[in-house]
TrEMBL record, chain A:
SUPFAM superfamilies named in the record: ClpP/crotonase
Residues annotated as domain CoA carboxyltransferase N-terminal: 1-193
Species in which this protein is naturally found: Cupriavidus metallidurans
NCBIfam families reported for this sequence: malonate_beta (TIGR03133), PRK07189.1 (NF005530)
InterPro entries: AcCoA_carboxyl_beta (IPR034733), ClpP/crotonase-like_dom_sf (IPR029045), COA_CT_N (IPR011762), Malonate_beta (IPR017556)
Protein name per Swiss-Prot or TrEMBL: Biotin-independent malonate decarboxylase subunit beta
GO biological process, one term: carbohydrate metabolic process
Gene3D superfamilies tied to this protein: 2-enoyl-CoA Hydratase, Chain A, domain 1
Gene Ontology MF terms: acetyl-CoA carboxylase activity; carboxy-lyase activity; transferase activity
PROSITE patterns on file: COA_CT_NTER
Keywords for this protein: Plasmid, Transferase
Automatic annotation (TrEMBL), chain B:
Stored Pfam families: MdcE
Root EC class: lyase
Protein name: Biotin-independent malonate decarboxylase subunit gamma
UniProt keyword Lyase, yes or no: yes
Record domain CoA carboxyltransferase C-terminal: where: 1-272
Keyword Magnesium: no
Single GO MF annotation: lyase activity
């Protein structure tokens, strides 16, 4: 990319959750729901010595994208690592359910989820887990009617139960900065040892779970530069397409067949995964 | 520590509920699938169990790994496909005893998140298409493993037993990630209900439909089996009588007030 192009583009990764939602929605169309003035803070954090935040780290913004009724659910990676507690999780699940209900009433509302999250907020453990199950349920319901688009921009990435949510989306958009994995690197190292997974080895981590690898192995759909205008354009294109008739999450037969090609006695390299999961057509 | 040779709770309960019927062939040994009759209708029982010989070394103790996630998806989708034209959809009963998802390099490399999404989506789709889906917690129901196997059910039932527990992460890992000591974590767990590991605290959150008292959780006798069978049949009747196929029945718990406030705010502000 030329120096001029680099200077003229606006980084999406550097924007906070609220600004990201504004970038995606048509100018003047956006309304924030269950926002900071509704006093919906986490009831669990203060007693554990953590200062709650007015929006609990999740922004629900409703409006239009190229004229299409849409709700954008943006997770703020800067608050508690983008972790989901009771309030933030209920915002996402509740908004997705209302979007599905819109569709049952003849209003074709779409959804975009901006993932920037480590998953369950451990200070609200079982309620975080419960709301993530409710988010999964709502995505599977809504995607029958209209696209649910996931975006992983970075730099937190998308982990834990929310990586499962990403795996349920109609389409998944990633940047080079993105990481997508079930278990965070530090947790795997804790559970399985540094020989299994070295959480400080960045090339190792990105090699397996980075956006470029996930695209090359068919675990994400669109690879984009960290450029707000580009990301907006891709999201607008994807939400305007009809709901899919088949999803990655339904391809058990193909995944089981391909996994059978892998000799699990040996640890894989990123190249092993590209050979087994890459496009063979 | 339990003897690694002993039969897991998941294996014990799927055998007991099916009258020792053989598991369907073609699945990995770690995913047991059995079709039975329950309350006069067909039902598919599914359990994830240990397989000490699994080719995946991080998934030998009953963890939900790559093969388990995709095989759960298969077991549920095949039931959905088989009943596509049926007037009565078979019940799907997830017997839950899973220490965790599999934590390993192989798993992240080959997209364990997507395998678990396959399982979660299958259960959610079954529920949305009218299959009664029940989760029966007989042991540990941990984190991503529970999200993939059980948490999409219309109704969640649990044996009333100290060995039955639901949580997002084991204590040691949770302490490290939140930069606290295990002692601090345990102190918070005693006063913050969603942090607790025991099933009674979990019950106050509202997700459980019922707990079932049994005498012998690991070796059920005829009386225990009857109590669990009765509870499952009552859950089926309750689902049949429910016009909704979503998860709204989980929001009434005494410790879920914030959820109700958030949902009320969203509903009142949704139309501009």
């Amino acid at each position: 990319m030329s120096r001029t192009a680099l200077l003229s583009r606006e980084s999406f990764v550097e924007l906070g959750a609220r600004a990201r939602a504004q970038v995606l929605l048509d100018a003047g169309s956006s309304r924030e729901l269950a926002g900071p003035f509704d006093r919906l803070t986490s009831p669990w954090l203060e007693r554990q010595g953590v200062v709650p935040q007015g929006d609990d780290g999740v922004v629900v913004a409703k409006g239009t994208i190229d004229g299409h009724s849409s709700v954008v659910l943006a997770i703020e990676g800067a608050f508690q690592g983008g972790s989901l507690g009771e309030v933030g999780g209920a915002k996402i699940a509740g908004a997705l359910e209302l979007a599905a209900e819109d569709n049952r009433q003849g209003i074709p509302t779409r959804a975009v989820i901006l993932f920037e999250t480590g998953g369950v907020r451990l200070q609200e453990a079982n309620l975080g887990l419960a709301t993530i199950a409710e988010i999964h349920s709502a995505i599977v319901d809504l995607r029958r009617y209209q696209p649910v688009i996931g975006v992983i921009a970075g730099q937190v990435g998308c982990f834990g139960g929310m990586s499962i949510a990403a795996g349920l989306c109609s389409d998944l958009v990633v940047t080079r900065e993105a990481r997508l994995g079930l278990n965070g690197p530090a947790v795997i190292e804790q559970e399985a040892g540094i020989g299994e997974y070295d959480s400080r080895d960045r090339p190792f981590i990105w090699g397996f779970t980075g956006g470029e690898q996930r695209i090359a192995t068919g675990q994400a759909d669109r690879f984009v530069d960290d450029d707000s205008a580009v990301i907006r354009g891709v999201v607008a294109e994807l939400i305007a397409t009809p709901a899919r008739s088949a999803y990655r999450s339904e391809r058990y037969a193909e995944y089981l067949r391909r996994l059978a090609e892998y000799d699990a006695r040996h640890q894989p390299t990123p190249e092993t995964v590209r050979q087994i999961f890459g496009d063979k057509s | 520590m339990s003897d690694t040779q002993s039969t897991s709770r998941g294996e014990v309960w799927i055998a007991a509920l099916s009258g020792n019927a053989p598991s369907l062939s073609g699945y990995p040994r770690s995913v047991q699938v059995t079709d039975i009759e329950m309350g006069g209708r067909p039902a598919r029982l599914i359990a994830v169990v240990p397989d000490a010989d699994s080719a995946f070394p991080r998934a030998r103790n009953g963890e939900v790994g790559l093969l388990e996630g995709w095989s759960l998806a298969r077991a549920v989708h095949e039931a959905i496909d088989a009943d596509r034209e049926a007037s009565v959809k078979r019940a799907i009963i997830a017997i839950v005893d899973t220490p965790s998802q599999a934590y390993g390099r192989r798993e992240e490399a080959f997209g364990i998140h997507q395998a678990l999404a396959g399982a979660a989506a299958a259960y959610a789709t079954a529920r949305l298409q009218g299959h009664p889906v029940i989760a029966l917690l007989v042991g540990k129901a941990m984190s991503g493993a529970f999200l993939a196997h059980g948490y999409q059910a219309n109704r969640i039932l649990a044996l009333a037993d100290p060995g039955v527990l639901v949580h997002a992460m084991g204590k040691e890992a949770a302490a490290r990630i939140t930069l606290r000591s295990v002692e601090d974590l345990e102190a918070f767990a005693a006063t913050v209900p969603p942090m607790a590991y025991d099933i009674d605290s979990y019950a106050t959150l509202g997700m459980l439909w019922r707990t079932i008292p049994v005498q012998h959780t690991a070796t059920p006798d005829a009386e225990d089996l009857a109590a669990v069978s009765d509870a499952l049949e009552e859950a089926l009747a309750d689902i049949d009588a429910d016009p909704h196929r979503d998860l709204r029945g989980r929001f009434a718990g005494e410790n879920r007030g914030a959820t109700r406030r958030v949902r009320a705010a969203l509903a009142s502000q949704w139309q501009g």
